């Protein structure tokens, strides 16, 4: 059972292609299914700790994995029963079912067991479960002590995080061969419990990966405040938000943070490390600025638009957040020839790029291509995409992040990474990772100021 940090993410079609490519020489579909069944049996034996296991088998190859795992678990002397929703339909499932020498109970009549192994449907699910199958799955899941899904919980689509109907909550999901988008996209991801990969010897490559601990810029003996990275935070009508971004940039490791506001110093007296200056358009053309953060507390009035235009024409690397995402035009962004990172939440994303039926990964990739910017599409399942197609999917972040000011902290953290010289995609990744770690370190009911402060500690 491999933790999924940093692993490639494959859609159902990409996974099928990878499996086909792996079938060379004496490796057949049956070989892969045997490997999957064996890996599942090993994982389940460990998790079940001697308790009775009920394996639910569907008609396709996901069911096939279930029959093989059941046969292996029984051979190890563990108490196992099998219940099927219908007879096997694929060749793989028929061969696998023949290896199970016990009884097969009809799913709707099956009695619960403490360990439930769901091998009804995996990547081949193409429509909602039949009502009787769904009811049986929910009934058996609610009576179980531990619910384990094979590849994906039956009832979730593979590529977009959608639920095709009412679903029970699982404790563990054993992804086979590769992580799929729904293992991290919401709402599906929140029902999967711990997601772990089982290796089945299929080599997988993708431009999309799960977030992992990134390389973070570190100072050395020759570093000075400017080489560490100078961040200019452009303030507006609500200086609290820009103050938070400035604090976060410092806490994330920036060497110099400049807060540019109209009406003189306004921040809390304790924040001595932030350099405060009155805003003037020419302040943004300062060569040493490694990143401009614009949007937190900017407002949406004429002054705000003017400041945004000045930031765009400065050509300096940009982090565009909050109010600036409501003011900016995609065409103007595409014309800015420096590095740029946009950090929209769902509402801001729709405002900028329009409503779409696409899944979050595809929509974010399209937005990055269209704007020429790295797009950090925030949420419980943040997706980061670069114009060249690279993407990072982030596992569920702390729900306690849903409080005012946490987005400003993220913008500041990303600004620090960009100013330190990371390329924009890596800067976004590093900022998002630091932010998620800081939230974890803060526990519950923290405030955005605590989150910004916690960035120092999680730099490690
Ligand atoms: N292809 C391979 O080489 C391997 C596949 N593996 C397993 O195979 C799975 C994919 O297998 P399949 O493509 O057979 O797909 P599934 O086992 O997910 O099921 C597909 C079958 O169910 C039917 N179906 C789809 N939705 C239904 C619904 N709502 N109600 C009733 N029937 C429905 C389809 O028509 C098809 O017959 C993976 O998730 C994984 O568990 C593993 O065994 C490893 C190797
Ligand atoms: K399943």
Low-confidence stretches: none
Strand content: 15-25%
pLDDT average, as an integer? 94
Q: Please give the order of strands in the largest beta sheet.
A: 9-18-17-16-15-14-13-10-11-12
Q: What is the third-level CATH name, the topology of the largest domain?
A: UDP-N-acetylmuramoyl-L-alanine:D-glutamate ligase
Helical segment count: 15
- Give every kind of bound small molecule, once each: ligand NAX, potassium ion
Level-1 CATH class name of the largest domain: Alpha Beta
Which structural category do the helix and sheet elements fall into? alpha/beta
**Outline:** elongated
Helix amount: 25-40%
- CATH architecture descriptor name of the largest domain: 3-Layer(aba) Sandwich
How would you name the CATH homologous superfamily of the largest domain? Ribokinase
Can you tell me the number of structural domains?
Answer: 2
- Radius of gyration over all CA atoms, rounded: 25 Å
Query: What's the end-to-end separation, in Å?
Result: 26 Å
Number of strands: 18
Describe the largest sheet: 10 strands, mixed
